[in-house]
Amino acid sequence: MKLTWSLYLGKIAGIKLFVHWTFWILVVWIFIMHYQASNSVSDGLIGVLFIFALFLCVVLHELGHSLTARRFDIQTKNITLLPIGGMASLEMMPEKPRQELLVAAAGPLVNVVIAFILYVYLKSTGGMYTLSELAEGDAAAVGITMSGSDFLFNLYVVNIALVLFNLIPAFPMDGGRMLRALLAYRMDRGKATMIAARIGQFLAIAFVFFGFFNNFWLVFIGLFIFLGAGGEAAYEATRSALGNYRVKDVLITKYSWITPDSSLGHAVQLLLDSQEQAFLVGEDNIVTGVLTRNNIIKGLDQFGKSGHVRDVMLKEFPKLDIETELKEVYRKMTTEGFEFAPVYQNGHIAGVLDRENISEFIMVESANKTNQMRFS
Questions:
Q1: Which is deepest, 147, 207, 217, 306, by most CB within 10 Å?
Q2: Exposed, middle or buried: residue 105 (CB in 10 Å: 0-12, 13-18, 19+)?
């Protein structure tokens, strides 16, 4: 899902590329830092050029994930560049261990290839620094700058750093997904996710601890990893709770209709008089749109109560089949961002489904499992 306030740059291999507005804050900050260090505009521009070169490597990294996933019929909606790196919005992560391992490893492998090419070039041109030279002092002491071959040397070092960072065995890093894939060869995916998440959170706590005494950036990295690991574990736990249930098991059969010509005032009254948060729009059991609470609120702000439902309803919406697996619907809700959808059986409307109903179903199932374990 594309982040808001993102600039569309074009397509690469059929995948849309966006850059988030916060990325430009990084660019400006890099320019200022380099300019202040030397009081030179050219040095500031070289610093910006280096950031662009770095993020080109990041794009190639994300393309590694995306194109490998495409081999397993998993499409990538877009790639978004952020100050902290890139984010490829895959439709889903493959569930088969081998496929997930290959998709996760493809990104770091791209950086390995880039680093190898740079190493060969720098070695042949005398631009490679040895470890002994680097051990003698800092970058300034050995004469490393941001220009000429040193520019490429720095890019080489950063690609090595990207490989090492992404191979940290913790979600949401590639290493965490690789660890889960390896564990999933020996156990079910849910258990593998929990173990990988706990390992990741342990490492995150270590990062935070050492960060307080050494480098405060490690604290932020630790928090990022801790939250990412927890989020992945929660997501997988939810999918596991849904098990082999289908849409028909949580189908809402009592729902309200509203016509496209109805006023927003009528929609407000319907919203207040019921527990429903969304409505089907149409007539004679033919759905022409979906109206959510957010649509109503935005419509009131723009048109007032005299506005019409047809002006604010969602004309494009998912249509679910009653036999679809519930965990697949939950995945689509998470990745595509919809909350409510009509459900069909043999081409006829059978009911509706919303995210809140799925959440309630998960809570009930979790309580039942806990009760069964207690008395078994």
A1: 207
A2: buried
